[in-house]
Amino acid sequence: xxxxxxxxxxxxxxxxxxxxxxxxxxxxxxxxxxxxxxxxxxxxxxxxxxxxxxxxxxxxxxxxxxxxxxxxxxxxxxxxxxxxxxxxxxxxxxxxxxxxxxxxxxxxxxxx
Amino acid sequence: xxxxxxxxxxxxxxxxxxxxxxxxxxxxxxxxxxxxxxxxxxxxxxxxxxxxxxxxxxxxxxxxxxxxxxxxxxxxxxxxxxxxxxxxxxxxxxxxxxxxxxxxxxxxxxxxxxxxxxxxxxxxxxxxxxxxxxxxxxxxxxxxxxxxxxxxxx
Lengths: 112, 154
What we know:
The complex is a heterodimer of chains A (112) and B (154). In chain A, helix 1 runs antiparallel to helix 4. In chain A, 66% of the residues lie in helices and 5% in strands. Chain A has five helices and two strands. Chain A has a single domain (4-109), classed as Winged helix-like DNA-binding domain superfamily/Winged helix DNA-binding domain (Arc Repressor Mutant, subunit A, Orthogonal Bundle), CATH 1.10.10.10. With 112 residues, chain A is mainly alpha-helical. Chain B has an eight-stranded antiparallel β-sheet with strand order 1-2-8-7-6-5-4-3. The longest helix of chain B has 11 residues, at 143-153. Chain B contains four helices and eight strands, in the order E-E-H-H-E-E-E-E-E-E-H-H. Chain B has a single domain, classed as 2-Layer Sandwich (Alpha-D-Glucose-1,6-Bisphosphate, Chain A, domain 4), CATH 3.30.530.20. In chain B, 23% of the residues are buried. In chain B, strand 3 and strand 4 form a beta hairpin. Classes of the chains: A mainly alpha (112), B alpha+beta (154).
């Protein structure tokens, strides 16, 4: 069963969200994932474990490496972020419609 | 009719388009006049922009600060590179979270479209990874709403 509590706590951390965002660009090794964060490898591994336990990412065996990629739930989480960005922008532009309507009315009453 | 589009292009671009019922001059002013910007550039419900400093001239700087009134907030700083009233704005910006994100280079065009305006905003990030990170952090202050929505699905 899909554990939403684990998903929530996994997504509640900015480093883990950045890792997911990075994996949206494709599979990456632990070293590649650790690079932008200036964190030790054990610290990154701990974040990866949380993401893995939450079902957001999966690992593959490639020789001595264990590259990670997004799992289906991870892809859905990324899609949801995109939907949130889209919604925030849409709300901005809906408000801008109102502002523009106000400017037009204003202009009719007073030439500037 | 005024539906917004948001799409990625190549490895480093994000393109947003939107139509408005007002002429380019009005839409341009709403993007450069602080008093107007503070009325709409707010993101999700409940957020406000108490600080909006904007020197709309080539080489001018801007600073936008947002708050959710509950202790949450962040700011963006940037510089204008080119301003062509009322057709085009080119600027760079970065978010401070509080460390600055890599620069986002943004060209915004306002083209007359009948009696209205077609706005096209083209963002260019330094690399694919930065774009992915920006798309994820840009949703940061939407996370709360997203949690509420997910909770309803349980």
